[in-house]
TrEMBL record:
The lineage of its organism: Bacteria, Bacillati, Bacillota, Clostridia, Eubacteriales. Residues 28-91, 94-156, 172-233, 255-317 form the SH3b domain. GO terms for biological process: cell wall organization; peptidoglycan catabolic process. GO terms for cellular component: outer membrane-bounded periplasmic space. This is SH3 domain-containing protein. The keyword Nucleus does not apply. It comes from Thermanaerosceptrum fracticalcis. One of its GO terms (molecular function) is N-acetylmuramoyl-L-alanine amidase activity. Keywords: Cell wall biogenesis/degradation, Hydrolase.
Length: 637
């Protein structure tokens, strides 16, 4: 179940109820359900009401005994009683963690959005009751059951190693980056400017920690990285020096990205404070620079317009001349045209950039050729240069340079239709032509990643069911997998290629699901869920996207993400026929971590009396699948 504002208070109240109902104790035993389905009852005996059923292989922590009955903890935190004859008992080693942070908050749930219920101190040892999403469910003296961030504790056994320094010593710790292209910031929070970017599996020594953030050294820079994007371990031996962050690029070619440092900064029509204000940007916003004049940057806005901002109210983003995968721009062809005038072809993360050095803006033209797969550059130059070649690995079947009257002509033939946009830097007299693949219509050949929500393997071997229908015990994971598989089949019949993040269960983290789309360079990512609310107060369809304007990767995708969400929501409402809640924006992990257009679909409310019944019906699931398919199809058309 995704933690939306509507759901958060539901979770808090649920967890509070569980706390009041009794605090589970780590008993050192767990029961594995034997074959078939077993009843779990309110009390120890068959005369007590059945509260739920568990399936073969499900692992249940044992909390207490009464005769031949076992009190067990269920996947949703509730407790119940099961006959010992229906499970196989196994002994498990008691797990404890030691607090490494100072004055650490413990919370009602596994996330910083949950209320603080107490504090623990460095060196405190806490029994572990369970784990979820990088957080430990622990027993805290005077508090009871609570949750603590996994990056602020370590396994008790690791603290007993005599070769390690005294426990809690932050200098003995190192972290490994688990996210891809993670920002390192000036301070411990997302409101601070980015000073560097680090990449997956890179290791750094921890210098300090604060509010769930770690201070690290990246090259000559020190900065802070979010604790939920790293894993922490003891440094054995000390970590080698971290690789330096990629250097910031100078403008040319709009490759410079700046972050706004003023609270509210005017975007103007010209390079003076006397010119008209056309828009405003805010602290933390990231802007792509497409031209520079004196102390002013011409920047691209989210609505497609461009305007000028004062450079003294911004700071360059370290590594902004580097692709999101950390690949430097490499020049693959250099053709001198005339004195101090050069034409270059460069590669940046597998994409083609054409670079013109030495021409004043207006002395060159870039035109689409007679075919969509051809670009023609007309350059004012007194040149006799001739060149002919190809760059097959970049999809350039021919590059041809030749003189024509008082001009030099460059013709490029590509393997498929292309688009282009031009950025120019006045100071260096450099134009960069970014070449992209033209969007073809229809689903044929498109690569789509479908993510059925939940079904993650949890500590103990059971699967995260997502939300559970209160009347029919319907599991969200089963409903959405059924819908997702139907969507997969429809897309494949229409010619698309589909990757499912799992086929019924997965050990991937949420970031790992998103990474499937990233590494395969998918066209879109669609995560499918069922919604839930307290007491069944809400019903209807909704679709989420996430693309903050200030994010250098997600911000430019805002139009595409919102468009995809809007079309899928429209078609799902048509087919499902329930209330149209609308298109919403939320910082869900799978949306935040994907680097391609992505959405999260909430098909209907499994907590609603009518929609729970509908979600259990094959016909309604098919209607939802058709709606999602139609929305995806409309997006590509």
């Amino acid at each position: 179940m995704k933690i939306t504002p509507r759901k958060r208070w539901f979770l808090w109240s649920l967890i509070l109820m569980l706390l009041l109902a009794g605090i589970p104790v780590w008993a050192g035993e767990e029961g594995v359900v034997k074959s078939g389905v077993a009843n779990v009852r309110k009390g120890p005996g068959i005369s007590n009401a059945v509260i739920t059923q568990v399936k073969s292989g499900q692992v249940l922590p044992v909390l207490d005994r009464s005769g031949s009955w076992l009190k067990v903890q269920l996947h949703n935190g509730q407790t119940g009683w099961i006959s010992e004859s229906l499970v196989n008992i196994r002994t498990v080693a008691e797990k404890k963690v030691v607090v490494t942070g100072s004055n650490v908050n413990v919370r009602k749930g596994p996330g910083t959005g949950f209320p603080v219920v107490g504090k623990v101190n460095q060196g405190d040892t806490l029994p572990v009751l369970g784990a979820r999403d990088g957080w430990y469910n622990v027993k805290v003296a005077g508090v009871g059951q609570a949750w603590i961030a996994g990056w602020l504790v370590k396994d008790e056994n690791s603290s007993k190693d005599s070769s390690q320094p005294s426990r809690g010593s932050i200098s003995t710790k190192q972290l490994v980056v688990t996210g891809n292209g993670v920002n390192v910031r000036k301070g411990p929070g997302t409101n601070y400017a980015t000073v560097a970017k680090v990449y997956k599996n890179a290791k750094y020594t921890i210098l300090d920690q604060k509010n769930g953030w770690y201070k690290i050294q990246v090259g000559k820079q020190q900065g802070w990285i979010a604790g939920w994007l790293v894993s922490v371990s003891s440094a054995q031996p000390p970590a080698p020096p971290a690789p330096p962050a990629p250097p910031a690029s100078p403008v040319p070619g709009g490759s410079l990205v700046v972050v706004v440092t003023g609270d509210v900064v005017n975007v103007r029509q010209g390079t003076s404070t006397e010119t008209a204000i056309m828009s405003k940007v805010y602290r933390g916003d990231r802007l792509v620079v497409i031209e520079k004049q004196g102390d002013w940057y011409k920047v691209q806005l989210a609505n497609g317009q461009s305007g000028w901002v004062a450079s003294w109210l911004t700071e360059p983003v370290q590594g902004s001349g580097v692709s999101r995968g950390g690949t430097q721009r490499s020049e693959v062809l250099i053709v001198p045209i005339a004195d101090n005038q050069v034409f270059k072809v460069a590669e940046l993360a597998g994409r083609v950039e054409l670079i013109l050095e030495g021409w004043v803006n207006g002395q060159f033209q870039v035109k689409q050729g007679s075919a969509a797969d051809k670009l023609v550059l007309e350059l004012e130059a007194n040149s006799t240069r001739n060149y002919e070649g190809e760059i097959k690995r970049l999809g350039v079947s021919q590059v041809k340079v030749y003189p024509q009257n008082n001009k030099s002509i460059v013709e490029l033939d590509f393997a498929s239709p292309v688009t282009h946009n031009v950025a120019y830097d006045v100071n260096s007299k450099t134009a960069t032509i970014h070449v992209g693949t033209a969007q073809t219509r229809g689903l044929q050949g498109k690569l789509i990643v479908i993510d059925p929500g939940h079904a993650s393997v949890q500590p103990g071997g059971w699967l995260d069911p997502g939300a559970v229908g209160p009347r029919t015990n319907l599991y969200e994971k089963d409903v959405v997998f059924n819908i997702a598989f139907k969507v997969k089949q429809m897309l494949e019949q229409a010619g698309a290629r589909v990757i499912m993040t799992h086929m019924g269960q997965t050990e991937l983290t949420l970031a790992g699901r998103a990474e499937i789309a990233n590494v395969n360079n998918a066209d879109i990512f669609v995560s499918i869920h069922a919604n839930s609310s307290d007491k069944g107060l809400y019903s209807g369809h909704s679709t989420y996207f996430y693309a903050p304007y200030g994010d250098e990767i997600l911000g430019p995708q805002r139009y595409e993400r919102q468009k995809l969400a809007t079309l899928v929501q429209r078609e799902m409402v048509k087919m499902g026929g329930r209330i149209d809640i609308g298109v919403l924006e939320a910082n869900f992990a799978v949306l935040r971590e994907t680097r391609v257009p992505s959405i999260l679909v909430e098909t209907a409310f499994i907590s609603d009396a009518q929609e729970e019944i509908l979600l259990g019906q094959e016909s309604f699931r098919t209607q939802l699948a058709v709606g999602i398919f139609n929305g995806i199809k409309a997006y590509f058309e």
